[in-house]
Design goal:
Length: 283
């Protein structure tokens, strides 16, 4: 089309020169040169067009390949997400199984017996089957600032020992952990026995441990710890909080899943805690 237009233009120019008479040679040469230049430009433009078409085709091919790669990667990404979700679910299942191996679940006979014990003594203790934990309220287990187990609590601890001594509980370890509120120990005489709330919590845990041993629980199964005021279950008020003053007993499966071999031992002295005469009535 451009070529026809250029030729038409040349013809028109030639006609105009002819209409005016003889065309000077230089004008004719100029037209020939102009026509040749236009033809060369047309050829160059056509080459550019063909090159652009080739480039466009190449780019389109690259785009198609990129889209295919994108869809493939997107599919792989979705597959990986599903794999990660599956692994996360498996991990949660493994962690749950590990927790069950470490913390329970308790044998049915033990869980039933502990639930019944808590039902019969609701003011003194509670039982959390999910954690395998028996919680004694310190206010009902000990006098203020004392580590001597009260008589009523002693009978309940003996009942707990009977459960622990049953064959159904033979594969369980017993962790006795004491806790207090955040009220500091103020009396010098009390501090002489229990310098801090951590000491008081440990000493109370030891008293419960000793009561269990006196009732026949193998001391190899027993562990003792105390956290003082540092693991409250409720916010402490100005006077502390009764719920935070507690002794928790966790029953956990032994590491090897079996009971310790029987040892020759005798229950320790029935004297539990300190001499009543040395017990301080106040913190």
């Amino acid at each position: 089309m451009r070529r026809i237009f250029c030729l038409t233009a040349v013809v028109a120019l030639a006609a105009s020169f002819l209409g005016t008479g003889c065309a000077p040679q230089d004008r004719y040469d100029h037209l020939i040169t102009a026509n040749r230049s236009l033809k060369e430009q047309i050829v160059a433009l056509e080459q550019d067009r063909d090159g652009a078409r080739a480039d466009l085709s190449l780019i389109q091919g690259q785009l198609d390949e990129s889209q295919r790669a994108y869809h493939q990667l997107h599919s792989q990404f979705n597959d990986l997400n599903q794999s990660v979700a599956g692994l996360g679910s498996q991990t949660d299942d493994y962690l749950s199984r590990i927790t069950q191996l470490e913390m329970g679940p308790l044998p049915v006979e033990v869980e039933t017996a502990l639930s019944d014990l808590a039902r019969r003594h609701p003011e003194l203790l509670s039982f959390d089957a999910s954690q395998g934990m028996v919680r004694f309220a310190s206010d009902f287990t000990f006098d203020l600032a004392s580590i001597e187990v009260k008589r009523d609590a002693q009978s309940t601890i003996t009942a707990l020992a009977n459960i622990l001594n049953d064959s159904s509980a033979a594969g369980l370890e017993v962790r006795v952990i004491g806790h207090t509120d955040n009220v500091p120990i103020r009396r010098a005489a009390t501090r002489a026995q229990h310098p801090t709330n951590v000491h008081l919590s440990v000493h109370r845990a030891i008293s419960v441990r000793d009561a269990l041993v006196a009732a026949g629980v193998d001391p190899q199964r027993l562990q003792v710890a105390g956290y003082g005021e540092f693991r409250p279950v409720v916010a402490n008020g100005a006077g502390g909080a009764a719920a935070n003053r507690r002794v928790e007993i966790y029953l956990t499966t032994m590491a090897d899943g079996a009971a310790y071999p029987s040892q020759s031992w005798q229950p320790e002295s029935s004297s539990v805690g300190t001499d009543p005469a040395t017990v301080m009535p106040m913190k």
